[in-house]
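just leaving the lab so this will be short. what follows is a protein written twice so to speak, once as letters and once as structure tokens for the fold. can you read through it and tell me how you think this chain folds. anything you notice is useful, everything is just below:
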Amino acid sequence: MSVEENNVIDFVTYDPKSDRVVLVMMETREWGDHGALLPELETKLNTYLCYALDGRLACDFPAYAQKLVRIELRTQHAPPPREQHLLDMVAKEDLKPRGITFDWKLIS
């Protein structure tokens, strides 16, 4: 799975500790040096935001309809500065005002 598949929600889970629905996106490719994956990452983030806000999440998972949402990027390689800047900006300007949190985690 990768952000290249930008019209797909990779998977949905529930975190009982935070009482949040977690929309997880995966990226297994290396990010590269010149921001090659930035357009794909931005599109994938927009897909996830729309999924959470336009009612599709609630339709697909009615039990989660009233839960808060976290978007999580799981990646094999830490995002380089350009990608990290985009993630920080989206989290602050687009997600946080809507009550959606964001995090990324390294996977092996």
Summary: Strands lie at 11-15, 20-27, 68-75, 101-106. The helical segments are 38-53, 56-60, 81-95. Residues 11-106 form one domain. The longest helix spans residues 38-53.
